[in-house]
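If your schedule permits, I should be very grateful for your opinion on a structural question. Kindly check, if you would, that the fold set down in the tokens agrees with what the sequence suggests. Thank you for your consideration; the sequence and its tokens are set out here:
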Amino acid sequence: MKALAARRHHPMALLVILLLALVATGGLYAAFQPRVAQAESYSQEDIAAGEALFLANCATCHGRNAEGQTDPDGQTVGPSLIGVGAAAVDFQVGTGRMPMQRSGAQAARKPPQMNEEQTRQLAAYVASLAPGPSVPAEEYLSGGDPVNGGEIFRINCAMCHNAAGAGGALTRGKYAPPVLGLEPKHVYEAMETGPQNMPVFNDASLTAEDKRDVIAYLDQLEDVGSPGGISLGSLGPVTEGLYAWTIILTLLTGCAVWLGAKAK
């Protein structure tokens, strides 16, 4: 103990304590951080093929180095793709949103222009530019809890996509698209990357298990379908009220005309 006490005042003591604190902090962070749902790594051949695809199909808007481009008025033509990760590319290209057919308020879903291998190679190239969200592993795309997923969806997603997942209108020509009938990995990637106007739900806000539960809820919602009656687009009480009042007012007007005609 005396030898230890004597070394407390050694010039290197403070440095040793600082290093131990950093090691302990790093260990705790590694132990408690959310698990990353990474699917795979990419080879240099994938990256090279992806770069060729990028230069031929994407560089016109996003720049030759994926740094993004603006027009002479300062409006963004194509955002920077540095740091968006493979997940963003797999979602945008896999759902046909990119490459865009024409500029507009929002990229619409359409049949993809690239096959799965080309999409994978393009994702590999963008992922090589800087760290970013990766394509999720298969284990995070099935087997979730739909009850917990439904609660998460209603709290975080229903205000735009509505509780039935039918989508809805936003401002300035933008919209929240329907979320039924999608591939599970695209649902996961949308939550992870926040495309268009959607907020980003990374692992700090929704864990990989939470995202898996949301996917399970949407799968169940698609299987169960409408509980009965006319869905009216599943847009909620506004359309339902308008529909009901239209029928009621039509009936009342018809009754008034009929009664007036009988009185004459």
About this structure: The domain at 136-229 is CATH 1.10.760.10 (Cytochrome Bc1 Complex; Chain D, domain 2). The chain has two domains: 38-135, 136-229. The first helix runs from residue 2 to 6.
